[in-house]
Write a structure and sequence with these properties.
The chain is α/β, with parallel strands linked by helices. The protein has a 6-stranded mixed beta sheet, sandwiched between helices. The chain is elongated and about 85 Å long.
Amino acid sequence: MWYNNILETIGQTPLVKLNKVTKDIPATVLAKIETTNPGNSIKDRMALKMIEDAEKSGKLKPGGTIIEGTSGNTGMGLAIAAVIKGYKCIFTSTDKQSKEKFDALRAFGAEVIVCPTNVEPEDPRSYYSVSSRLEREVPNSWKPNQYDNLSNSQAHYEQTGPEIWEQTEGKITHLVVGVGTGGTISGTARYLKEKNPNIQVLGIDTYGSVFKKYKETGIMDKNEIYPYITEGIGEDFLPQNVDFSLIDHFEKVTDKDAALMTREIARKEGIFAGNSTGSAVAGTLQMKDRFKEGDVVVIIFPDHGTRYLGKMYNDDWLRDRGFLKDGKLTAHDIINKKEYQEIITIDCEKSVLEAINTIKSLNISQIPVTQKGMVIGKITESDILDSLIENPSIKSQPIKNITTAPFPFVDLNTSIDKISGMINKDNIAVLVEDEGKIEIITQYDIINAISA
């Protein structure tokens, strides 16, 4: 058996039991693995449905351009369908999203426009506004508007809900879904609640989003809105696809808990999933008192971990945000393990001869170069030697004439692995600012810290 094109492989994704990360939950916990879709995410389902419905209604015409605001996954689904069906794609997104998502969209021939995150939806710079403007300006274009296009939730009513019902043989008691556009949770919930009104539908929200408070109070509180890191869930407005009447409870999860759980799932279950999956599993653990033995809990795993390699799966990215503290040495540890020695610098107007004398007298091999107290470059023994061989008279000239790029600065939380990778024959040290003082870390300092 074969398929006529890749779009026919969308859906019928597996349901997999979780064993280790959910060991403290008395219920059976199952993961709906949507990464087996061709675009590696659940958004393939609704992307194709929105396109097919637009074709039927005449909104999307042959040779047209699809323009959408997307964090990446919907764009991927749209881009794949566009390749098969012969459409162009222009996507707007936010600078919060991972670079890997943008690279993936461009791989399918889409144009990606990156817009600022921290602006109101009505701001002309927002990715919502830019996509709407482009729809007006680009001839023969169509904007799916995944947030308010009810074909989104209808796709899950027709596909995701029935699949879960059949795969659990109707035994599902709880559905856990991260809520962004609201299409997945609302469409799936509508189908499942028609089959069994007692099924509990639990939405995962993030701090900085409006969903939870709106569900509980009916108030759209703009004071709830602030920037957050978690990708794929939460919003600062109310999409029409979010049917609050179908959602029994919202659970908020912190950026840190979501990021760390994303990694835990890979390491404990062997499932390489994305950031919103980490949120959903962390939220499920927070709600463990809602579940009892015999319950069957289904968690949607929306997308693949490859789109987060530079973020949640990167130790240094996590450390920079204070999310990860492990046993590895950092710049702060290296500085603490070395004897304090005031860093020697030299002003850029000093002569090359003065630099040579400083290096000789202090028995050092490199000196940061300053201008008005600010580090602007460096000078090393090899820099001086190369310059003297080429022009012996350079000894009387200011060192700014032979100064090379400065040693890179790192912060105190930078790992020893990253620092080691930055030190090489062309760059023999890094600089660290510690409480207003500049410290230098060399290869010798790293060796000393490891062996101390």
